Description:
This protein is α/β, with parallel strands linked by helices. 28% of the residues lie in helices and 27% in strands. Helix 4 packs across helix 5 (169-180) and helix 4 packs across helix 9.
Amino acid sequence: MKALIYESPETLVFRDAPDPLPTDGQQLIRVEAVGICGSDMHAYLGHDDRRPAPLILGHEAAGVIVGGPRDGERVTVNPLVTCGQCQACRTGHDNLCADRMIISMPPREGAFAQFITMRDENLVTIPEHVTSQMASLAEPIACGWHTVRLANERLGNKAQSALVIGGGAIGLGAALSLAAQGIADVTIVEPNALRRDYLNDRCGQTAIAPDQLTPDMQYDIVIDGVGYAATRQTASAQARPGGVIGHIGLGESAGGLDIRRMTLQEITFIGTYTYTAQDFRDTAQAIFDGRLGALDWTEQRPLCDGQSAFADIRAGRTAAPKIILQP
Length: 327
């Protein structure tokens, strides 16, 4: 098969790779759509020790099952594989499984390829009216869905306002998840003017520049989809007393939080990692039901042009929150 392979920092090569072979309980899937994630970008830049070269990146995938009794079935892929046996898995916190593995991280190759394999329980069937491009968004949006659920539960499901830091796919997915879970007053803060205009004009969002935030703008929930010291500082300042900060981003590991304010104002900080299997299924169903909107804010490019897509994202030349590659 052909695959887009990360070979060294800032170098992706489209070339031949071994065909994956399904084992018992797995399906062979012909990939039709796979999104570029921020974690793929970290790896591409050589900033992720968990993803050493050479490696096939990519984990936001949807496609068609090839062979067997489910031949021809269209599916979206939950890329997080867990043991199913530990306490975390048994209690519905499977995303915290100590043995969790995600495709695009050794020993599992990713989905920037023509084919992948995945076990049956990680596959969600796509209805006819939903495109593979839309269905591939289940993975990134599920990250925000999971964070919104946890934050809102902390507030007794009574949150009324939210600030989302970062207008990429994670941030936009969080904003859509907030609305779908009943929180209508949502603001996105996004520094890139090109993307900010896109969010306002194409996505129906309220997106502002960082310098438009004022101290009196306080929110029940603040979601940091970026994860840098500067964005955590913003989250600390804009969460209302008694509010919740939901932290998704993995930009850098330290700095930014105003612990004194968080303590004096009883602000809850929740770190969130991916999603549970149920969150993934709930997100996919929300896509299928149309509760997350038209999902027409992606840009499609062929997988063979992946190198240029990564370069454009890094340079800030893309307005769309998500580029989807098509093998």
